[in-house]
């Protein structure tokens, strides 16, 4: 097959066509102005175009240029003078950029989201805090402990596995309570 002259310089002009019948059956449809659909034809043969050996170098250059052009990023950096980040800061009351109604004005506790990083405390200090929390209340969920201690959940789990028993069944299902050996020390310190 010979192609008509084109404006693109490196495009090969002559190709060999390989016809095959190993194709998924397809039909060609057309759509009329009124929205009606009509069957125009059926695809029965597949044609693969391959440039002749004389044109293979030109075709290789074309493919390489196309790949290089796709890899070029046209990002631009614009420097903002004397802005000091005023336009980047959220304004008061614009958290989430949603309109609030009187129904939505319930008590909103400042809770850190799951994507906010929490900093680990010293292990001994955190264990003291945990003992004080368990003096106040015998059973805690992991979520409650994360809120109370403001520690990463994974770090809390490590300490909870050492100090506590996880209740899988019963009335306190899904909560942690101190192991019996630590309960005694808590009771002893409360008696003194």
Overall description:
This protein has 192 residues and is α+β, with helices and mostly antiparallel strands. It is built from five helices and six strands. The model has no long low-confidence stretch (mean pLDDT 77).
Keywords:
192 residues; alpha+beta; two-stranded antiparallel ribbon; 5 helices; 32% helix; elongated; TFIIF_beta_HTH; DNA-binding; Transcription initiation factor IIF subunit beta; TFIIF_beta
Q: Care to give the gist of this entry?
A:
This protein has helices spanning 56-71, 123-136, 142-149, 153-163, 180-191, and strands at residues 15-20, 26-31, 37-43, 46-51, 164-167, 175-178. With 192 residues, the chain is α+β, with helices and mostly antiparallel strands. The strands form 3 sheets. The protein has a two-stranded antiparallel sheet with strand order 1-4. Strands 2-3 form a two-stranded antiparallel sheet.
Shape: elongated
Number of strands: 6
Low-confidence stretches: none
Give me the side-by-side strand order of the main sheet: 1-4
Strand content: 15-25%
Number of helices: 5
* Sheet with the most strands, sense and barrel status: 2 strands, antiparallel
Class by SSE composition = alpha+beta
SSE series: EEEEHHHHEEH
The level of helicity is 25-40%
- How far do the termini sit from each other? 100 Å
Q: Mean of residue pLDDT? A: 77
> Roughly how many Å is the radius of gyration?
35 Å
Topology, element by element:
Elements: E1 15-20, E2 26-31, E3 37-43, E4 46-51, H1 56-71, H2 123-136, H3 142-149, H4 153-163, E5 164-167, E6 175-178, H5 180-191
Antiparallel strand pairs: 1-4, 2-3, 5-6
